[in-house]
Each structure stands twice: as C-alpha cells, then as structure tokens.
Design brief:
Blueprint lengths: L1 E6 L4 E2 L10 H18 L3 E4 L4 E2 L2 H13 L5 E8 L6 E5 L6 H11 L5 E6 L4 H4 L4 E9 L3 H6 L2 H13 L25 H15 L11 H6 L10 H12 L15 H13 L10 H7 L2
InterPro entries: Bact_Sporulation_Assoc, MurNAc-LAA_cat, Peptidoglycan-bd-like, PGBD-like_sf, PGBDSf
Pfam families: Amidase_3 (PF01520), PG_binding_1 (PF01471)
Organism: Clostridium oceanicum
Length: 292
C-alpha cells in the first residue's frame, strides 16, 4: 500500500498548531515519524506530505494536498491534536464515511483509554475535501486536556494508527526532537561539481547511464540509491563530502567512502535538523534534503 502522511501544522510561520500542556505541531511529528517508520518496516511505501514552514495557511494546505495528489496514494492521513476544552479522539472523513481503516484507527485509539468522539463529516476540511485518494484527518486527543496528555504515548498512538491502517504494527526507534534554533546545515548546496561526482558514482557503481553534466534533473533524482551503515564506495564518499560541507562532524576519517558510526551519527543529526525520519538511512527524502 502507498500511504501519504501529513504531520499537521507548520513548525514556523503561518499555520502553527494548537498549544496546551503540549504543542500540537510537535506531537504530530512525534507520532508521525513513528507511523512512517512502522509502515516502511512493514513494507509499505510512505510519502511525507508534511509542510514545516509556510507564509500563509492557504499555502500550507495547498502544498500538502499537492504532495498527496502527486504521490499516487492509496490513502492520505493527516495527523492532528485537538484543543478547546474537550477530551478524546475523533476522525474526519469525507461525508463521515466509515470506511474500514477509519473505523479501525478510531477503535484502536479508543482502546488506549480515550473518549470516543466518533467519525465526523470532514468535507469542509481542505485536506479531506481536496485530496484525490481516500483521506482521513485524525484528531488524536486534546493538547489542553490534562487527562489526555497524561495518557499520551507517541509509541502507543502510532501503534494504534498503524494497526488500524494495515492490520498490524511493529516496534519503532524513530524519534523527534523539536528544533531549538536554525542549524548551520540550512545553507543551500548546489555545487555542480558535487552533482557530477554523484552522477559518476551512480554510473560506475550502479550502471545508471546518467549524463555527468552536474545538473540535478529528474533522471538523476530517480537514480539515487538508498544507502545505510555498512555501505562502501564512491557514493558514500559523495554523501560524506556533502555532510562535511554542511558542517557535520565525521571525525578523523573524513570522506573515506565507508558508512561507519560517525557517518551514521552525522546523518541522524542532519535528519533531526531537517525534521526527517531519524533512521540513519539515506533514502529519497534524505537525499532530497541533502541536495536542496
């Protein structure tokens, strides 16, 4: 199954989430990263439809929908936390449709001890109304309810959602730490010489047949290979050179072409700074952020 996950609200700018005992915008990511990792470990394709910064609410919403509608999704899930003096969980679908995944997710979260507020009509919610795939917006619980927040566990909430979506779940080690200040890693990286090295590495090690023109076009992006600890070779060396250029510490080994423990730590720190899934795996989303 191909599932889009939208961790609701931005981290900065417009469309910031509710604030109570906890901040909604942080909670959606605590749960969302775990949901994405669990789904990926179970063999499902995940498309991150989250927006971290936007100049307006309309821009934030339209970008989320655009990501969903271009992702060839089977399901779109928007994660939220409620506020306003209530308690419990509610789910919004178009026309209050009680399709199987929505009903299962609701029942699983209720099983954690939260009040059942039901499945409600979300046709007036932009991300429910405007997405092409079957969609649901989950209001997991209330950030301004002491009872709800005392019960809250990101791992248990993610388990309830994942099991409701695909029928089973799995342990997650994904974590989220709210950014405290802009990182030095935020500088742009667009060196054509590095893109040429990347293309050369993909050609020599993986026979991708790319033009080594230093342009990060669609073919080069599509040819990127997922790498993780234990990998060796010229592609790892290019990764390390990019990390070093962004001021991430690789220790005394530097760009040696070996994806060891220091490279793993650097990748995880980069993922944390960019609010990505912190799994030390350099896949499509991490490559995209590295080469942005």
């Amino acid at each position: 199954m191909r599932i889009g996950i939208d961790m609701g609200h931005t981290l900065s700018g417009s469309d910031y989430g509710a604030v109570g005992y906890r901040k909604e915008t942080n909670l959606t990511r605590e749960v969302g990263f775990k949901v994405m990792q669990k789904l990926e470990k179970l063999g499902h394709a995940v498309v991150n439809c989250t927006v971290d910064s936007a100049s307006s609410v309309s821009s934030s919403l339209s970008t989320r929908v655009r990501k969903a509608n271009s992702g060839n999704l089977d399901l779109f899930i928007s994660l939220h936390f409620n506020a306003g003096g209530g308690t419990g969980v509610e789910i919004y679908t178009y026309g209050a449709s009680k399709f199987s995944q929505a009903t299962s997710v609701l029942n699983n979260i209720v099983g954690l001890g939260y009040r059942n507020r039901g499945i409600k009509d979300g046709k007036n919610l932009y991300v429910v109304r405007s997405t092409d795939p079957k969609a649901m917006l989950i209001e997991c619980c209330f950030v301004d309810s002491k009872n709800d927040m005392n019960m809250f566990s990101a791992e248990k909430m993610a388990d309830a959602i994942v099991k409701g979506l695909v029928g089973k779940t799995i342990k997650s080690n994904a974590s989220y730490n709210p950014p405290s200040k802009p990182s030095s890693s935020s500088k742009k990286y667009s060196s054509s010489s590095t893109i040429k090295k990347l293309q050369k590495a993909l050609n020599s090690s993986y026979n991708k047949g790319l033009a080594e023109d230093g342009i990060l076009g669609p073919k080069t992006k599509a040819a990127l290979i997922t790498i993780k600890q234990g990998a060796k070779g010229s592609l790892v060396k290019v990764l390390q050179e990019i990390l070093i250029s962004k001021k991430y510490n690789l220790g005394g080994h530097g760009a040696d072409g070996v994806f060891g423990s220091m490279t793993k730590k650097a990748v995880m720190k980069f993922q944390q700074d960019k609010n990505l899934l912190i799994d030390a795996i350099v896949g499509p989303n991490t490559w995209s952020a590295l080469l942005r």
